Amino acid sequence: MKKLRKKWLLFLSIFLCLALIYLCTIVGTASISFEDVNRILLHEIFGLPADMEGISQGSITIIRDVRLPRVVLGFLAGAALAVCGAGFQGIFKNPMADPFVLGVSSGAALGASIGMVLRFSGSFLGISGTTLLAFIGAFATIGLVYNISRVGKRVPVSTLLLSGIAVSQTLSAAMSIIMILNRQTLDQIMFWTMGSLNGKGWRQILLVLPYAILGGLILFTSSRELDIILTGEDTAIQLGVNVEFLKKKVLFASTLITAAVISVTGIIGFVGLVVPHIVRMLTGPKHRILLPLSLLFGGTFLILCDTAARSLASWEIPVGIITSLCGGPFFLYLLRNMKKGGDFS
Amino acid sequence: MNQDILTFSHVAAGYGEKNILEDITLSIKEGDFAGLIGCNGAGKSTLIKCISGLLPLRGGSISICQKEHAALKPRERAQLVAVVPQSYHVKYDFTAEDIVLMGRNPYLSFRKKEGPEDYAIVEEAMRATNTEIFRKRLYNELSGGERQRVILARAIAQKPRIILLDEPTSALDVHHQIEVMELISRLNEEEHMTVLAVLHDINMASRFCKRMIMLQDGGVFADGTPQEVINRENMEQLYQMKLLIRESAIFHKPEIIPVRVMDAPKAKERRHIHVICGANKAVKLLEELDAKGYQVTAGVINQGSEDWEICRELHIPCVEIEPFTPVTPTKQEENLRLIADAPLILVADVPFGVANLQNLVGLENAPGQIYFHKNALSNDYTNGKLIRQLEYLGTKKKVTYIGDHDEFLHLLEKEEKRISKNKN
User: Does a structural domain hold residue B356?
Assistant: First the structure.
């Protein structure tokens, strides 16, 4: 019974997700008719013969090279962040953890701002300097936090969290100094930290995809062990889980994914926190279903937020603002509910 | 079959600066049911943690099934050893079956998913522990006893050679305590599972374990059958209190009866009190008088009665006779010799029949004051002889009748106060 229900839930989510991608591709500020969009999609994406008469080259470019990649990247980023969130909440055994809690975001932001200030116009293998620096910043931060927290061979999660917060604050301060000293790039850095999918194309997707797939594989194959660690680290060791290796594995995979995503999009908060939470309420804590559904829901959530970001106002709102606007209050709601349950730790 | 399955040699371990275990050397044989006892902080749980890989050793070595413990990978160790911890909560909504299925983890990998064989093992484990009826219910919503059975099922699903239990019954009521212990006992008997259990309830340990190991000051203090380990010396060392040890009439295993931790307020004078008793109602009184520091004697007592047992435990001098034999005049003479020294004589709450009425013969010549427990009159099986004996005694001496033993203790206290006032 329950298994069947979960299968249905999965199918329904996939269907909803595809429908949403489609819908969000149609919606946009440039008015291209519903019919035209269909024809462009059929012709350009699926390679099917469709009558392309009367459709301007501009419309084709907007759909093929602007809207569709943006929606796809939105899905990819949202899915990746949500899956990482689920993984983090697993190893931290704390529903309030998310990929940014260890300072990935601050590290990336600092890296990116250095790149912007130094006007790093050069690129490496087609990757812009800012992106590269953000990626390096994110990874270096996690490496630092991990090594600070290490006690012998073990890394206690409480120490990890605390040093994560401390390092994160320090890096933010460093970034603030850079911003104050370089007022001319202030806007640019500000916008970067708010996160946006604006102006991203297929190239960025290809950039993120390998990391996302690699990290995702690591996380998905750790499902059972993540389940077990939720019942306690000691128990996990006694059930044969190599807990320290699992932590390392999940931290590495999540950092890989998150760093790749945010170095391209900027900081998009709360997706990794809120989405796994909602999914857990629907399906329970088992990662075998939690991870794939987080992937779908996360992607969908970010597409929705991004569509709102680009169509609510006549100007572009950074999508990070929208996700935080949705996520913040939800976080508080969870916090209050947990307090009532007396089970907040 | 009966070879060593778990061997400790000079094991040392601890937390922070302090070593909890200093030097543990012992071995557990296959099929053993060993109970670890010891006071709080003696290192029982620490030892369990060392075996299950939660705590690294600081010295010595452990070998499990002839394999060096330190060289085992977590999953290899989990295939040999399963742990049942103290009552155990999970914050997340797993079903009972999910939890039991986790026991199969040591046999799975990222390539090998749970197969039909694993589900069959899980089902069998849940049947053995009577948990299959709530396999789909959430673990968190189960009662303490049910949860503990689920954890036991998980341990069984692990198919280990050794099962370690860390106070498995500490959070349970008596019904569930016994249920869990019986399950473990059955595993040991029927499946020849080797069991090492930390138990804080000595009587439970005595009843179920084949072997008991007592830890103290980081080492093994005593090791042997329950009969060998549970003696007054070991137990008073363990609990730092006064307790009694007797053989349980039902299980024929030693059991302890905790008596007191705090010393009773001492009487000012070590006066001699002779208690005439012999059944089972004077136990508490005898203990209390002894604890208050009186010089207590008793007689004539049937061997095997509870009054007799406490006299023996507390080394109270008494005149004794074999069970179901009458008090002979010779025995009564012995009794009277004890009585002759006593300024206070108490006839305790004891049923009188023709066999023990002799106890009261000759009291009229005793120098001490006589107190008589009224309830003895309600258990009079002498066809009026008791009454006549008392009437006769009454003509010769003053007999003070008391309602219960506490009243007697009260009278003693009052008299003491009076005496000390007079002295001042």
Answer: yes
- Do residue B110 and residue A221 have CB atoms under 8 angstroms apart? yes
CB contact, 8 Å: A231 with chain B? yes
Structural domain range at position B362: 272-423
Instruction: For residue A224, list chain B residues with Cβ-Cβ distance below 8 A.
Output: 102, 105, 108, 114
Q: Is residue B350 assigned to a domain?
A: yes
Name the domain boundary from B258, B292, B315. B258
Q: How far is A294 from chain B (nearest CA, A)?
A: 17
Residue B57 has pLDDT above 50, yes or no: yes
Interchain pair A230, B77: CB under 8 A: no
| Token output for A188 | 């640019």
Question: CB-based contact (8 Å) between A235 and chain B?
Answer: yes
- Identity of residue B148: Q
- Domain edges within chain A: 69-340
The confidence score (pLDDT) of residue A197 equals: 84
Residue ending a domain, among B200, B225, B258, is B258
Of A230, A241, A345, the CB nearest to B92: A230
Q: What's A69-340's CATH class?
A: mainly alpha
Closest CA to B292 of B212, B140, B406, B380: B406
The DSSP output letter for B352 is E
pLDDT digits (tens, 9 = 90+) for B251-277: 888 888 888 888 777 877 888 999 999
Give how far the C-alpha of residue A126 lies from the chain's centroid of Cα atoms, to the nearest Å: 22
Q: How far is CA B95 from the centre of its chain?
A: 36
Kindly compute the dihedral angle of the four CA atoms of residues B37, B43, B47, B53, in this order, to the nearest 10 degrees.
140
Asked whether B136 and B99 are in contact (CB, 8 A), the reply is no
Distance from the A345 Cα atom to the nearest Cα atom in chain B, whole angstroms:
10
Predicted confidence (pLDDT) per residue in A309-332, tens digit = 888 877 888 888 899 888 888 778
Task: Identify the pLDDT of residue A344.
Answer: 37
H or E segment at A257? Answer: helix A243-265
Q: Are residues B204 and B170 in the same domain?
A: yes
Residues B97, B57 within the same domain: yes
Radius of gyration, CA atoms only, chain A: 21
Q: Which residues of A touch B99 (CB under 8 A)?
A: 231
Nearest to B102 among A221, A222, A228 (CB): A228
Q: Which of A228, A284, A285 sits opposite B105 (nearest CB)?
A: A228
A115: which strand partners? none
Whether residue B103 lies inside any domain: the answer is: yes
Considering only CB atoms, A241 lies closest to which of B54, B74, B82, namely B74
The tokens describing B281, both together, are 């109602």
Tell me how far apart the alpha carbons of residues B311 and B298 are, in angstroms, rounded to a whole number.
8
Total domain count, chain B:
2
Q: What are the chain A neighbours of B115 within 8 Å (beta carbons)?
A: none
Confidence of residue A123 (pLDDT cuts 50, 70, 90): low
Q: In Å, how far is A284's CA from the nearest CA of chain B? A: 6
| Domain assignment of residue B331, yes or no | yes
Partner-chain residue, chosen from A227, A240, A285, that has the shortest CB–CB distance to B106: A240
Domain of residue B219, CATH code: 3.40.50.300
Q: Residue A79 in contact with residue A245, Cβ under 8 Å?
A: no
Chain B residues within 8 A (CB-CB) of chain A? 52-54, 73-79, 81-83, 85, 88, 90-94, 98-99, 102-103, 105-106, 108, 110, 114, 136, 154, 158
What is the three-class DSSP state of B138?
strand
Q: How far is B92 from chain A (nearest CA, A)?
A: 6
Question: ipTM of this model?
Answer: 0.83
